[in-house]
Structures are given as structure tokens and as C-alpha cells.
Amino acid sequence: MGGSHIFALATLGVALPMTVEIEWRRLRADELRRKAEEDAIVILPVGSIEQHGPHLPVEVDTMLGETVALEAARRVAAQGEPILVLPMLWTGLSEHHMSFGGTITLDDSTFLAVLRCICKSVVRHGFRRIVLLNGHGGNDNAMRVAADMLTPELEVPIVQFTYWYAAAEPIAAILETQTGLRHACEAETSMMMALRPDLVARDRIPLAKSNVTPEVSELVGGGMYRWRTLSAMSASGVVGNPEAATPEKGQRLIDGIADELARKLLNKDFWTLPFLSEPAHL
């Protein structure tokens, strides 16, 4: 029905709606210059290549971070707001996963330098709104530092968020055995089942059950921090319950996260908040 309807409109000479391209890498330089003139939002998704337990591939954070960035951007573009998604930055800060193998990590200074170079390039081309969308927990602190450092330096609003914190409410409403997204868990396994079921080794999910040690908050409450390797926390490299994962749940998570991120990015008042102070006159 849908296909024949579109064909009929085309044969009648009726203009069909054009899909707006949101991927930076697919556009020409002249098209990107026009996007800058339109004050397009630019999203840089940042992930990692690191172990994800006995049942998931090492690209989980990169694949999921890019997916929610693109899906959110499509929703924003559908509302007429210009937006672009840069190619995924596929590596980040994953020293805490190195003992399991398969992990690629940067050090802090290199990671911050890469973020700085990318943001500076984007701003030099005339873009004035940058989003650092994080898909890996180990990147979170450094990406906030990057936003703090680069906002006054580049004099543009730089937004930083980790998608499972920014979309905590819809995630919590969908999960059945966890309150939020963790690592190779109910949430991440479900989303990978929805996106790439061929990469999920379902027969190895039971291997995720292993010895785990208490989290710091379980011992002393909130507000205290200690760096720990993942292997010191979980012998399998999993934190959470992948046995509760389903592809249906995964698709609901992707949609719910994208809807929530788009809603926040479309908030005009959010973008117009003052962020640089004028000199004080005493």
C-alpha cells in the first residue's frame, strides 16, 4: 500500500519529501558550509573499544553511542532543526578494562587533545553549537572536563552528556531487573540483540554469572569515589543482568533514549542560556 501510494504520487509529478542528510561524512564541503550558516547543532558521539563480557563484541559502546546519536538527530531534523552527526570517535578511556584483553585505550591527555582538535575544527568552520555525546562510562569525567575547558576557550556552548544519564527515566521504565544501564547488562545486551543479533553469543550469556565485589556506594554510601579495574569488580567483565535481555526490550530502549535526547536538544531555552560572563564593573 505504502509503496504503490508513493509510486502514484511520483507518476503524477507530485514532489516527494526529501530525507535530510544528518551525517557529516556524507556531505560535501559546500553543503557543510551551508549547514554552518543555518546554525546546525553538531553531535560528536564518543565510544570505546573494550571487552563486554563473554557474550558481546568489543564495539558495543561505539555501536550503541553512534546509534542513539543518529536516531536522536533524525528526530531533531524531522522537527526542522538543522543537525549533524560527526563520525564516531571509536576509542576513549578504557584502562580499567585492559586486563581482559581486546581493549584499546587512550591516556587522558591524548583523549582531551583529540576532543579539543575536533571541536576547534568544527568551530573554525562556523558552527556554534556542539554536543559531546558519550557512550562509555570511563569517558564521562574527562568529557565534562573537556566541556569546561573548551567552552570559554572557543566561546561557544558545548554540551556534554552520557546518554544513559540524560535518558535515565525512559531507561528505568523499560528495564525489569536493573534501575539503569550498566555494563554488558540487561540494557546493553538488549540493544545489541535489536541492532546486531548475529554479534550476541546467546549461549555464552550464562557465563556472565560470576563472583562480584561490593560497589563503593554499597559500603559507605554516595559521594565517595575510588578507581577500580572491571576485573576487580566482576570476574566475567559484566556488571548487571544480561539474562533478562530481549530484542524487543532493546528496540524500546533505543526509541525511548532517542526520543528523550531529541526532546532535550530541541529545547530552545536550553541553547539560549547565557554561558559567558561580561566583565564586572564595580
From TrEMBL:
Keyword Electron transport attached: no
Protein's UniProt name: Creatinine amidohydrolase
Entry keyword Electron transport: no
Family: Belongs to the creatininase superfamily.
Gene3D superfamilies: Creatininase (3.40.50.10310)
Top-level taxon: Bacteria
GO molecular function: hydrolase activity, acting on carbon-nitrogen (but not peptide) bonds, in linear amides; metal ion binding
GO biological process: riboflavin biosynthetic process
InterPro entries, per database record: Creatininase-like_sf, Creatininase/forma_Hydrolase
Keywords on record: Hydrolase, Metal-binding, Zinc
Cofactor or coenzyme needed: Zn(2+)
